[in-house]
Fold these 4 entries.
Entry 1:
Amino acid sequence: MKHRILAIALLVAAPGLLAAQTDPITIRLGPAPNQTLHGRTVQDMTMSIAPDPAAAAMLPIPATSIQMSMTIDTTATVGPADGAGHYESRMVCDNVSGTTTVNGKPAPFAMPTAAITGQAFTFFYDDAGRVIDVKAEGTLSDMMAAPIKQALSSAMASAPPITLTVGETVAVPTQMNLPVPAASGGSGMTVTGETRYTLVSITFDGADRIAHLKTAMTSTVNRDTRAEAGAPTMGADMRITSEGTSDVNVDRGIALHTEQRMTIDGTMRMAAPAGVTSTSMPEVPTMLMHGTATIKNDLAK
């Protein structure tokens, strides 16, 4: 009798469960206002740089392999929305640790974990929950702040809300101009591409809906530093592909877990200043880059 009642209950509930899985759902990738979040970001990267064997050059440069790992524990205080729906989130780096090796040996420079610990970043959101600006507080230099901002931005999200049914995929274009410090000035680093989100399933944590997403990103990065008179010109072209997963609490607007696995391929080039001959300044070969990186973000309950 009990089995029969259970079977009837399942038959009655099945249409509702099916509808919950197939109805469109809007997923906010950035945090919703008025909450405090404790998170951990772990980033691991390996990058190899070697001269292009096809490029003739007078200046020999040895191949280099760099490995970097960094763990950042953060507290983000998300404030209220204003009349236009805009709001801010102030994120403080509570604890930072990391290591860097060059060709398998400790790097000659130490990662400035002490300087980064206690550093605060403010993320500015529009009414759709999309990051429109990021500012670093304190005395941290732009060169030191840039990789930290990149790692934390993946935790805070920059894409607008997306609406999907289970099994559906949507592509969101990406276009950013990242300021890269350079004493001689330059046009910065431009990132263009798209990220594809696929809604795999929806589960429940109590009454809260948890959206499970697969992500795939393809983007290109271009930088061209227009040097001042007497300084060399530098440029870089990179292609970045990645795949990953994301678990989002739809009802609270919280990313519970995200993971991205990235592959980076590209070139770096440097040209002598105008009027400078190769005899007075050896020609630098085009450098080939290949790297992999993993960025994981987890929300502490």
Note: Confidence is low (pLDDT under 50) at residues 13-19, 178-187.
Entry 2:
Amino acid sequence: MVFTYVYIPKDDDKKLDSEFYLIDVILLVLSVSKIKRFKSNDDKIIFHSTKEFYGYLEPLNLFDEFKEIVDDDVYIKNQKYEYCHKNCIYKIKAAISNNESYINLDHDFVIYNKDYLDLLKQQDLVFSHREYLSEPILRPTYIPTYEMILDRIKDHEILVNADTDFVINVSICGGKKFEFIKDAYIKIWDFYVQNHVVLNEFEFMTMFLEQFLLKTQIYKNDIEPYYCWEDYETNKCIHFSGHRYKPEYRKRIVNELIEENPNAYQFILENFGFYSDYMIKIM
């Protein structure tokens, strides 16, 4: 099995001495360190990123292979990023380039159990969880975006009769039958390229492509995906998401990195910065 990570900083991301940027680096290193320890000899870890960002982490020897992302796609450069991250669109491109079974993990998704990782490797399709669009936090996102896009781009087959009950959270995404994801994202990417001028006007567009349209395409097949959990957290894995910026979670994340990969923790301290509220061992 191939484990992939896709990370590219936004144009307005702060440098690595930023407190909020640093926690993403710490989480990425923690997540990869866990996979590196739990994976079998036949598995490999591939990192998709810019050469500059990979250069920050290369001394840690975390990855088996690096694939460069050149951040010059004319369609992507014109997107709005007030909310969504470029990772979303580059994850689509990475999925299209995959030619073997893989599991992609977001940098803020951590697996804590080797047996659970082995279980995920056996799934035909694996995703994080369902995001039900009736939930108050999600109501202002996908459905309004879908309705506005449908009003501007009429009768495109990928939009007609789209499911509006839930979307697939892809903080973890992949499986043995990865070709279903690849085929879906090829259709979604073609739709994006054909209509990028209109689509780039919508701030939630990347999430719409990555999760909303993926769900509509995946459920045209007979395969029932495996979802890691339907609650926020289990003892087997966690998607930290926006909670990673809260002091109590930052302390937890740093403590876990100290336990998992103390050399990486020391490297980060020496090279990226120090923040006294959470960059120390909290007893």
Note: The longest helix spans residues 19-38.
Entry 3:
Amino acid sequence: MGGEKEKSLDDEQRLWAMREHLGVRARPTDAAFESEVTAAAVRPVEPIIARYADRTGELIIDVIAQQVGVRFEEVRSDRDIERLEQKYLVEKRELGFGRLAQELADRTVDALLFQRLHATGDSQDRWVAVLNMTQTQSRAYWSRPHELIHRLAEPPQRRLPFYRHRSDARNRLERIIDIGAAELAFPRTAFGPRVQAVAGQHLTWELVQEVRAAFAPTSSLLSAGKAVLRFWPHPAFLLQARVRGRRGKPTVDVALRIDVEGFSASALLSGVQFFPNMRVPPSSPIAQTFATHRNITDLESLGRWSTTTGSCLPDRRVLTSALHMGSVIYGLVTLG
């Protein structure tokens, strides 16, 4: 309990330090704080994004990293840890790397960001971002802009330990960083026009794959889908479905149920609102994909989506594109 309270106080101090570093007017307690911090952090690199808007996201991120002195290092095995210890601990006398193995032993840590103590002002590795890829490589593309936003939004650490970064939607500081990371990974001025160019087509996972392959081929399909939805001009939802029971009663009424992972801006005005933990009807392509393990795209009626209390969604005809990913089904639902 004491550790959690200490971390909460540390995060609060970092929010105030972030405000001073970026010169934003909003206080951490203000509703506008997140948007002001994101805008201020991204603003210095917007010329780079504009200059390379017709190139890939990977190249944009690499150029930004070079501009701000961040070197990305990837760890896939113990041999990589040994290599980095030799490079930074032994050869460059950066004592923080003596903790590298200990820090990466925590499987929930996606990345570590460290400001080198012995780097010169013009070094290309004044900051070192170590990406933990021992469990999965699917977050590698996302982790890079995430670490860059930490570099851009926060003042120099002035302390020896690594900053340990993990995905945590409940942590406000990491949530702010993720908002900024989304802008670097799929920039409004570079990725947005690409989505607008295909907005006359049906929103399917196949279309998301095409846009992803052209802009950020190393990104995950799910992150690309969320990014496409962010710029999609028509009402659309991203649903995640998995087998479970009622909330608070996991063994009762076990069925394929959904959470809303995202939605387009125009979906807010559509009059359609999916209920949390809502059951997926057997007629939905989401249920059919779950049953067959085949990705299915088809029309369905939302009127067949109902709750145990008898409530149901508006009888709207929609196009649902369902994607099977392990034990989870992801559905893109577009209103006609």
Note: The beta strands are 70-75, 111-115, 127-132, 163-165, 236-244, 255-263, 296-301, 317-325, 328-335.
Entry 4:
Amino acid sequence: MKKSVVLFFIFFISLNAFGQNGVKGGRYFLLLKDKNTISLNAFENNEITEIKTYPISEKSLFTTDQKQRVAILNTANDSVSLYDITSSSELKLSIPFQLMPKTVLLNDDNLFIGVNNGIKMLFQYHIQSGKWYQLEMPKEILDPFKLIDDLVINDSLLIAIDNVVMPKYLLFYHLNSTNKLIFSHFKELKSNGTYEEIFNGRIASNYLGLYSITFSGYIGCHEHITIYNDLDLTSSFVISVEVKEEKQFNDFLLIEDKLIIAHKEKGLGIFEIKDSCFQRVSDKYNINASISEDKVIYKQYENEEIIRLTKIPDNETKIVLTIRNEAGKIRQEVVEV
């Protein structure tokens, strides 16, 4: 990939991670208060209750297991602070690897870090034993330009999302609570165009969603939200928009049979996912079936921009919008979806 294209894509990267990653149970979720602060919250009596706040920087990655811990990784120096929610204690972790972190995920037993390395791309910290592990990569994935750009989880698998160099893959690891995760298998992803870079993954009980950007000298830059109907990646569809001066899709969520989109200009979008949306595409073409963005129903927020969407744990009817006004002030709003 040409250096100029790489730099173009980096312009769109947001380091802050909010953990819409399939972790189940618990009651806590993270929200952005301002550029230097995140808050830990619960949803009680039909409103947001703030529990604690934590300092961050523009170089921070952060996540919560929704029950006991918050992890904040400073990508400037590869340091990790692991906070216990109940005791307010902080454990500072020394990482025994040279990393270029891209994403973090925290569950009951482990902290996982996906990195931009190409050979060493995925690391596990087992909380109980205090041990670090470098997870196995299949030989098909090993490439100096590859990286892990996001992580999601289901009941039994950690799923790492491969990025940058084609072909791209999902990597699957068997979850356990006692030691190093064992590699299971990988699946090749379909393509949305040239120079595609994947940035975020979202997972629900029925679907897997991926956000990516493609670039072509002929047709320009486009953003894509691709939805797969299962982890076998047998059928899929994609909703795409053209990038003109700035990206349009700020965030997305999967809630039951709904795709929720935070659009920079159009506001809050909702698209009903139906079986008829999915098409099985032959291996010969390896591309996703396209659905027009016109089918997304938007509600506009005048003079405001929805910058984040946050899932409330164990709630399939309400989400939290993080909204920024023209003066840069941030507020939160709970909406029914």
Note: DSSP finds one helix and 27 strands in the chain.
